[in-house]
Amino acid sequence: MFEPDPALVSLVSQAGERAADTPVSSLFIGRWSSRAMTGEPIPDHVLFALFEAARFAPSSYNSQPWRFAFARRGEPEFEKLHACLSEPNRVWSRNASALVLVASKAAFTPDGKTEEMMSGSASFDAGAAWASLAFQASLLGWSTRAMGGFDRGLARAATQAPEGLKLEAMVAIGKRGDPALLPEDRRPLEKPNRRKKIKEIVFTGGFPADC
Ligand SMILES: Cc1cc2nc3c(=O)[nH]c(=O)nc-3n(C[C@H](O)[C@H](O)[C@H](O)COP(=O)(O)O)c2cc1C
Hints:
Blueprint: H1 6-15, H2 26-30, H3 44-55, E1 66-72, H4 76-83, H5 87-93, E2 98-105, E3 107-108, E4 117-118, H6 122-139, E5 143-147, H7 152-159, E6 165-174, H8 198-201
Antiparallel strand pairs: 1-2, 2-6, 3-4, 5-6
Helix pairs in contact: 3-6, 4-7
The structure holds flavin mononucleotide.
């Protein structure tokens, strides 16, 4: 049974933003994306556990379209990935322990076939893989924050990503750090944020026009 760290539980109850109407594993409520990170080295057994979790995500035709390019803080490749981020993301993510560029590849050859097909759900499937990575990180006491704010052209050049890869998101991984590490305007955001209500996102049998 997953036991979130007590500091996180108290933060969740203080913020009062993530009470579930129907009981659900604290794994889902306890995960949140901090910006403040300590910058400490991430051990291989942690980093690769996150990739393993991602690897076992479900995908259309079991096509497994997710691809990851990573770099650890202190490596030259980290600087290259970091330089692709938008300025606001660069500020906090310099203290990440690792940066991961998540990509998806729509072209695949189904098992037992010889002809290539294009998946219509490569991004959707890569999203499932990223979520698995994020939850595994949370289980191991590490934090993740995805970023859409990066220059895709720079990132493609920095990672030599072939044209067939769609660059989906950059992910910062780190140990949650002191909010004082952040610019002042970001510090109040270091807590779990809100969610829509179930009735705003879940509908019986069909969708209302205003959903
Ligand atoms: C695809 C994607 C792109 C995101 N882009 C950014 C970003 O560029 N910068 C940032 O600070 N956070 C970014 N986020 C983080 C979201 O703002 C955050 O996940 C959301 O507010 C929910 O908060 P939580 O993850 O703490 O539950 C992104 C998240 C996702 C999944």
